[in-house]
Each structure stands twice: as C-alpha cells, then as structure tokens.
Amino acid sequence: MTHERSIAPWMNPLLCTAALAACVLAVHAASAQTPGGAKATVAAPASLTAEAPNRAGAEWNSFHGQLGAQKYSPLDQINVGNVDKLEKAWQFHTGDVSDGSGGLPPTVWSATPIFANNTLYIGTPFYRVFALDPASGEVRWEFDTHSTLEAMTQPALKTRGVAYWEAEDPQAGQPCQKIVYIGTMDAQLFALDADTGRKCEAFGRHGVVNINEQNTLHAKYPLSLLQPPTVAGDHLILGWAGKDWAYAQAPPGTLFSLNARTGDLEWTFHALDAEMRKVSGTANVWTAVSVDPKLGLVYVPVSSPSPNYWGGYWPDAVPLATSTTALDLETGEVVWSRQWVHHDVWDYDINAAPTLMDITVGGKKIPALMQSTKQGFLFVVNRKTGEDVWPIEERPVPQGDGSVKGEQLSPTQPFPTRPAPLLEQARKPEVWRLADIAGAGECTRLWEQLEYHGMYTPPTTRGEGALAYPDSAGGVQWGGVAFDPAGQTAVVNVSHIVQYIKLFERQAYDEADSGAGNESGFAPQQGAPYGMRLEVATNWLGMPCWRPPYGELVALDMHTGSVKWRRPVGVSQKYGFFMPESWGSPTIGGPAVTAGGLVFIGASMDAKVRAYSLETGEELWSDQAQAPVVANPAVYSYKGREYVAFVAGGNSIIKEQVGDQLVVYALPRE
C-alpha cells in the first residue's frame, strides 16, 4: 500500500556462530563513521586523462534522470575502460540521521540527488534541503521546513528527496524562476527559490501548499509526501503515501496536478469510484510516475485497495487498482489502463514508475512501456494504446481453501509471455538445507504447515498461513528498470524473499497480536473482519529458509525480451559478517546505466556501491559507503567532469544501519 516490506530479520548475527563459520567468507570489523553535521570532505585530486566538454545529458534533473524513468545518462567519460580508476571526489554529511535510539524515529533516506541549475540539490529525512556545489560539496544554501519529526504514517522518517522546475524563459532578477520542491510526512509541499533557498511567496500560502486539505474522507492519517513530485512542463504531478495494513476504510487514492508556479490545484485523479471510496481506501500512488511529453500522457503506477489482505468489501471489479494507468497530462482523464492484478489481496502494489522505451521488435519500431512488479513480472505494452507488445495471457490461479469468509477471488490473472518471469512462481521454493539443519528441521516443518499452490495462493486462516512467493517484499521494488536506448538493453535488480501471511478473525487477532516491526508482524486492518500477520520465513537463528541467491541483477535484450545475463548482486552482510558473493543480497533502490557501458547501483546490505559492465554483467568497481545505498544513483557532468552520486542513508528493512552520507565519485583529475 505504501512502501517496501520488511526483510531484515533473517540476517541474525547468530548466522555466523562457530557451527556455521565454514560458510562465512570473511569477517570484517564494522566501520563506523561519525556524521559530520552538514560538512563536506573533498578528496585530493590526482590525474584525469581527458576532460569531455559539457553536452546534452549533463543534468540529472529529475528523480529518474528523465521523465521516461530510463535512469540513463548519455555521458561516457567514465566507461568500462577506466571505471576501475574511479575515486571519491567528495562527500557530504547532512547531520540528519537517527537510529531510533533517542527521541526521534529512525531515518530512511532514499533520496536521489538532483543536478540542475549547475547545483546539486538534496532533501533529507528531517525535511531539510541543501544546495551544494557539484564539484566540491560546499553548501550554497540550506533550508529547514521545521516539519514535525514524527512517524505519522511510516515506521521511520522517510524521504526520496526533492524535485526541480524552471520557467521556459526565466526572467532575470525575478524570484522563483527556478524552484526546488520538498514534501513532508505531514503533507506540506514547500517551494523554494533554487538560487537562494527562500520560500516562493506566490506558491500556495507563502511558499507552502497543505495537501492535507484534500484529505476529506476516512482521514485517519495525513497524505504523506515522501516521493518528490514529478515535474512535467508547468505541472507538478503529486501522489502520497499512507499507513500500511492499519484500516479497511482509509483515505482513498488520489493523484494531484498542481501548477508549478502557484501551487493551484489543476486536476485530481481518483483510482476508486464513488461507491468504493465509501467502503475502502488507498489504491494510491506512493511512488514515482513517468511522463511522455510528446504524447501528453502521464503513466501512473497504482497500488492496491484497503484492506490489503481481504477483499470482501470490494467484490466487484476495481479496474484501476493495482494497474498502470495512462492519464491526459492536461486534464487527468484516463486514456487507457491495464490492471496487472485482479482483486488484489496480496498487497502487490504497482510500486515503480514504468520505464518508457522505444524498441525494435521483429523489425518494427514500437513506443513501449515496461512495468515491473513485485511478482517479478515485466509487462511490456505500447505506451500510446496500452496494447500488448508480446502477448499477455489470462491464466487460472489458485482459489484458496474456503477458510476466509466473504472473499470472491478472481479466477484468472494476467501473465506476460515475454520477458519470462524474473522469479520462479509455479512451485514452492526449495528449503535451504543449511538453514534446515541449523534449525533442526524447523524450515521443513514450517513448509509443511504453509499453503502454497503457486503464485496467487490467497491468504488463509489455517495452519501457519499461506506461503507468499513472490511476496510483497521481493520481486522488483520501487527502484524500477533502467534502460540503455542505444543497445536497447533493460537492467533491473530483483530480490528473492519468502514470507507467509495468515489472517485472524477479529477476536483471535486481538488475542494473538504481539505487535509489529518495520512493516512486518501483526497488523489490525481495523474495520475488516480479519487482522493479519506477515512474517519472513526464517529459522530460529534468523537464517532464511529458502535457498540463495537473495538478490540478482538482470539484463534483458529488448529486441527479443530474452535475458542477456543475470548475476548475484551485492553481498548479504550484517554486524561485520559477509556471506559468499554467490548468495547475493536483497536490494532496495535501483540502477542507473550510462553510455559508457556501465551499470551503477548500490541497493545491497553490505553498503557498497558498484559498477558493472552493461554488456557482460562483470563487476568492474566497488567502494564502501557509510550505510546501504537505498536510493537510485545520479550521473551528471559539471565543468567537463563526469560524476556519479550516491546517497548512503540505510533502511532497517534490509539492515539496522543508517547514514547521512552523500558520496560523489569521479575519475582522477589531470
């Protein structure tokens, strides 16, 4: 419904006891780095073989680099031949970090840096904005929203950063011809002059729009603005995040278009019809959207309705929920829509902006759209019409054991025929023998108590529940798919996670509820006849019960939809212990690709940033960051030098380690 799902518990330090020491490749002392309190450290330059001039593509002025969410840079100064020489150019510590041990909730910092206006802009989970010199990290200005630092809708203080707009013909001497926007958890959208950091007085009320004024039905929590708006011309396209699994009747899903200059509301998109809004909620847009300005279309990834794991209040079709829906940019009217999960009782939110790509299939050029999903599907359609590029078939799916009252499941679900699913979906994942031995057969016993008849096995009240694989934590998360338009290669990171879900009738739930962690454990679904429990499938040591790998990086040839290469990505790590590289790591955040033939990504538990060959998947470079880089990287050029920027903020969903580091890399100077 809102964000990533918890997968952290399985990396218990007991995994590295003496009995399992043979499985550990190396033990390293955890390196702690004290936040610098908004200070930049600049690395000493060495030599740079050649400095390319600034050219088109030097900026990374939106969350995904461009409105089509390709996460692609045409820069090639850094390439496969020299990326091994990449060095830290500078780093910056915001000071805005919390591990939850003090008076503040923990922080989750997933902000992609924005390079525009010859400045690097970054928003923090304390809802401050920094404007930095892109070559040194020196602070040009900073702004504090003084937002309430409370976990109102999320288990942590979260942000994915800022957005940038500039007038088509900026007027010299006039304020706010260029604007930086940041939203807050309490639903306030701030507009700041990009040159000075002062609030834009003409925007909303003295520089602030209160989005919560639109929260008029089932307003149990604020419409949290954790994803920066998408800027398309003079439009700000803005969704919101809510509170997972808490209520059956919740704020109904809405997407807003605001005027970028004034903050005035232009149109509103409702994913639920008027009758559904009375009994349900959410089906919101909590992640980024993508835009094709030439077609005048906004492509919207819509989440599932509430309550997430029981659909008795919506027996009829809810066609826009768990969909990709194309809207007219000027009016918000639906142009076409494709629903990827019918009657979604698995919390299979469409959680990433679809990637727009022009591809050649069978000699025919196609304006395509690829939508990744939690199930490990990659749906490919014509972005003008929504029609299949490769056939998408309706296939029969499991119908449950009848234990859940009032449920009316869909008999079929859509399956793409190409590309093939990134995850195995037809059979129960194989028990990992090492975990089973360490747990004295605990994993085998758990598997025997879990219902599973393939993907779309619905929740149950019986036994330990239903095994969920692919689950709402795994598959492809909000980082989405990157695309190289020159080679027509798509790149995506995928996590292999097994969870299990059980429903409890209301009285049984009240007796069983023992609380929840970061988006796992018990949740009430208040107003529905069933509460729920969602757990990661581990043994008593915290070891995953399913076989590795736990995360992979996959490249696809988009001429054919076939896999070019796939490999484990990252290293599973906690408390200084590193697992074998062949196991890979669960990931949060996504990749960026460049014309230099490179894939840059953080995303893994071991808090490293890496570069891979786009052609072969070979790892070419890595470096250690302060915390897991759960944000997409940014690639930009400034004064002839190419830079790659990562935010190392951490997320307890994969590891109990947080940071406040913005770290930027470049080739050595001449």
UniProtKB/TrEMBL annotation:
Cofactor(s) it depends on: pyrroloquinoline quinone
GO cellular component terms attached to this protein's record: membrane
PROSITE patterns: PROKAR_LIPOPROTEIN (PS51257)
Signal peptide range in chain numbering: 1-21
Region (Disordered) location: 392-420
GO molecular function: oxidoreductase activity, acting on CH-OH group of donors; quinone binding
Keyword ATP-binding recorded: no
Keywords from the named record: Oxidoreductase, Signal
Span of domain Pyrrolo-quinoline quinone repeat: 60-644
Family assignment from sequence similarity: Belongs to the bacterial PQQ dehydrogenase family.
Record's protein name: Pyrroloquinoline quinone-dependent dehydrogenase
High-level lineage: Bacteria, Pseudomonadati, Pseudomonadota, Betaproteobacteria, Burkholderiales
